[in-house]
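2.7 Reproducibility. Because tokenized structures are sensitive to small changes in the input, we list the exact sequence used for VWCE protein, including any N-terminal residues retained from the expression construct. No trimming or masking was applied before prediction.
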Amino acid sequence: APGTSAPSVPRCWYQGTPREPGARWTEPGCRSCTCQGGRVLCEAVSCPVACSHPLPAPAGGCCPSCAGCLHEGVARAEGDVFSPSDWNCTVCVCLAGNVSCISPECPPGSCPSTSPADCCSCQPAKCSFRGRTYAHGARFSLDGDDCTICVCRGGEVECSFAPCPVLDCPQHQRHLGPGQCCFTCRDPPAPAGCFVDDNGVEFPIGQIWSPGDPCELCICQADGSVSCKRTDCVETCPYPIRIPGQCCPDCSAGCTYMGRIFYNNETFPSVLDPCLSCICLVR
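Resulting structure tokens (single pass, no recycling of outputs):
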């Protein structure tokens, strides 16, 4: 009636915060709340999913997303094309949260050359080449030409030259023998002697010499290497005679006394006492 005022709709108080009548908000835990007649009514958020492989709800969200796909625990972007790990030759695509997969259609009988043999339960096509039939994957060489290797792949023959190893010898030592496909290295010529220094001094094989030390002897071996060995002097005497150029002292020729050499049975005065006479006795 005129002059009367309509009753006001009360607001809601929720956890110390005022809410206007009809207000709607989302609480943690994906609960949807609304203010009605001064009371707060809450219920779980309803998430209608319109795709087969939705992505989990993003951080802070409640409902999964169809802007991508979740397939076998792997997130796929919109329009992504992939092959499942355990589905041989199957191709899948992610469209609007839905995953569609297509498997190859394999005709009966032999496999077409454009389809891998492990995608179909069929027998790969054989090859007919120069009057002979070869199974798929067979390797063979041309008649009279062992340097060319051929292989049968899905009904077609592919030929190529046999691979050759990489040689580490210079060009002038490489050799192609009769019936061989690849070059080989010739054996280096046998050495004629031994080079012992940078001046080109050469000793023939079997030559024995001393390199400067009379107690060391060297020999030129058949492979061109030099083998040296020192001489061990085992004979000792109280007064040995050392002959220049000789390794071991001589105990059979005489005696050395005060820097002088005396022969066997030779007498001479003593340097310390002129009344004494000495004699060299070799024993």
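Residues 60 and 270 are 120 Å apart (CA to CA).
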